[in-house]
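Handover notes (outgoing to incoming on-call)

Open items:
1. D-aminoacyl-tRNA deacylase: sequence verified, structure written out, both below. Nothing else pending on this one.
2. Nothing else urgent.
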Amino acid sequence: MMALLQRVRCARVEVAGQVIGAIDAGLLVLLCAERGDTAAICDKMLAKMLKLRIFSDAAGKMNHSLQDMDGAGRAGGLLLVSQFTLAADTSGGNRPGFTAAAPPDEGRRWFDYVLEQARQAHPVVQSGAFGADMQVHLVNDGPVTIPLRISA
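D-aminoacyl-tRNA deacylase structure tokens:
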């Protein structure tokens, strides 16, 4: 499983001009299921997303996680967006290949699994729509952008 985490001041996802998910300060996560992913891999990815210390403390050091974003116990928002193109293979030719990405039915299953687990573990979770043509708007904070990959 692959993810691109972006620390944001705010973010939203629109489909057909309608906002379907929005957060204030927190993480926008572009998430890609890969062939062979498992529930254990998804669980590790979610745990890393929630606990990664990439939010600033009073001294400006990255010491707080999404779960304790401001150091006072207030959690930040988590906006999950499916993005199979993270698995792009650009090593040959000029057209990327996506064979490493999970097939659509498997990708949807793992995205929905992570989304459900996130909603059980975190108070502020929003999402895009799997497979939809989405417009993602964000105000990057920092910018802080971190790639993650979890495998067996």
